[in-house]
User: Fold these one by one.
Assistant:
Number 1:
Amino acid sequence: MIEYLTLQNPRELDLFVASHTRGHYMQTAAYGKSRSDYHWSCVVLRNDNGEIYASIALLSRKIRMTPCRIFYAPRGPVFSNLTEFKEICTAARDYCHQQGGYLLRMDPPILENDPIYPHQIRNMGFHIDPRDDYSAYQPRHVYQLSLLGKSEDKLLASFHPKTRYNIRLASRRGLVIRDGNRRDLPIFHAMMRETAARDGFQPRPITFFDDLLTAMGSNASLLLAEKDGNVLAGAILIVLGNKAWYAFGCSFDAGRSNMPNHLLQWEMIRRARWFGCSLFDLRGVEGLPSPLNPAYGLHHFKQGFGSHFVSYLGQMDLPLRPGWYFFIQTLHRFL
C-alpha cells in the first residue's frame, strides 16, 4: 500500500529510518523540518500488516519562470532489496509527476561497484552523474569508520601514529571540548565563513544551522574546541540509530597548530561509540585518494582516523517531463 506523509505525522517514519541499515538522517522528517527553504513530503510503502517497509523523503521547490518543480531525495530512498527499490522509485515517480515535477533526483547509498543496481537503475531511465566534486548535492566519496566491537584503546591503536600524536598534543596544550548551544551559533558561523573563504566554498546561512540543531533535537550536538576559553574549532555531530555523522566542521586560522580538529574528531568518534553506534561517517571528500589530487589533504586527515574510502554510485536524475528537463538543463548551462 502506498501512503503519502506530511510533517504532521512523521514519528513512525523516523523510527523506521533510524532502524534501517540504509537509513540516513537526511531521510527523516526531523531533517525535513530543518529545510524550511523546501517543501517536504514523503512516500512510504506498507505491507499487509500496515508496517512501513520502504520510504523516500522528498524536498521540492518550484523552478522560477516555469510551472515545474524539482524533487530531491537526499540519500534516499530507504529500501532493503532491488524489488523494494523499484517499487518505491515507481511510487515516487508517479507522485512527483502528479505534483508538477519535471525531475526526480536522488543519491542513495549504493556502492559504485555494486554488481546489480547500476544496470537496473539505468534501465529505469535514470541518468547517473559521474561527478565527484562538491558541485553535486551530496558527496559521492566519503570516509567511514567501523566502531563495531572496538574499545577506545583499540580505536586509538588503529589510527595513524601522527593522528594519535596530534590528539595528545591538543590535550597537552590545554584544549578541551565542550557542548555548544544556540548562543554559540554566531561564533560557529564566523568559523564557518572563515573556513569557506579558506577552502573556496559558499557557506550556508546561520539560520540553516539553527534550524538543523533545533529540528534534530537530541540527535544533533554542536561541539566546540577551546583553549583558555577561546573557541578554535567546531563541529556538528548527528546520531541516528546505530550510525553517526560528522555533519559539519569549521575552524579559525588562528590556533590550528594546536590541532583542535583532531581532538574534535576523536571526541565525536568517542561519543558515537558511547551512543552504541556501529558506524561513524566522516562525510565527503573530492576526487580519489591520490597524492596527485589537489584536495588530498582532507583525504589524508580522514585516513588518519583509520577510516576507509567509500565510493557511491552518485547523483542520479529521472526526467519526468523530458521537454522541460531538456529546456531547464540547457538554461542552467548558460546561466
Number 2:
Amino acid sequence: MKAVFLGAAAIGAAVLATPAQAQSWTPLVESRGLGRGAVICDNNGTDPSGNYLCLALRCMPGGPLEFAMIAEGGDFGDGSPVAVTVGVDGRNVGAIVMRQVQATGQKRASVPYEAAAHRDIIAALRGGSGATLTFFGTTVPLSLRGSARQIDHAFAVCQAAAPQPAAASGNLTAADVRTQLIGRDLAWEANGQNVVTVYLPNGRFEGVLSGRANNGTYRVEADGRLCWQSIARGCFRFYRDGGALWVKRDDPQSQTVLGRVTVQN
C-alpha cells in the first residue's frame, strides 16, 4: 500500500500556509474539524501533486490527547488498524497503532495518548532533529524543527480541556463504559485464560480467548453492566479499586472477580 499525502489546502491557512512552513511543527487550531494541538506535515519537494501526510498531537472538543494521521487523495487500506513505526534520527523509538476514523473527504487514523506506551516516543520527538513514519511498507520523513515547543503546547491545551480523571474507586457507570472502554482493546487473565476483547460501537465484540476467536454481540445496561447477547451469555461489571481497573462477572448466579484489566489502546 502506497502512503498518501494531505494537500496543504485541505488543512487550511490557520494550520499550514506555505510548503516552507510544512517543515516546522506548528500549532493546530480548531479548523475544519481537526481539533487543537500541534502538527507537522511532510513536504520533500518531490511530489508534483503537492500532497502531504500530516502527523498531529491533538485533541478534539471534549476528547483526550491523541496521535492522529490525516491524509487526502488515497486511503489507509481496508479499514483495519494502521501500525506506524516511528523512527527518530535513524533509531526506532516505538510504534503507534491507530484506528481509522470516518471523515468526509479525508482519511484519518488516531489513537489516544497513553503515557506508558507513548512517553518514549514523545521524548524522542521532542529532542530529535528528524523523524520517519513507516507504514504499509512506505517511509515518510518529517522534520522535528520546533517540535519540543509545539508538543508542549499540545499537552497544555489538551490537558486543560480534558475530562476530569475517573474516580479512584467504584463501579463504572454506563457512560463511563461507553466513553472509556468501547472501541478499545481490553485484556485480562482469568483462571489461566488470556482474554483480549474489543467492544465495537456497533454492538458487536471481537476478541481472543486462550488463542481462540471469540465473537458475538453485547449491550451496555443502564446500571453499567456489559452483557453478552449471543453464544455465551452473561454480564460483566468493570470497576476501579486501588487505582486499577478490574472486571468481574455480575449475574445472579456469579459474582466472580475475573482479573485486572489492561486498556491497551
Number 3:
Amino acid sequence: MKIIVPATSANIGPGFDSVGVAVSKYLIIEVLGKVISGLLSTI
C-alpha cells in the first residue's frame, strides 16, 4: 500500500492560521506486507 500526501506551508504572513500554500514536495509512505484473513501483516 502506498500513501502520498502533498506538503504544505501554513501560518504565512498576515494570514496567520488561515492561509496555506501547497508545495511540490510529497510525503510518501509505503507499507509492505501481506494480507492474512483480512488483517495486514507487516514485513
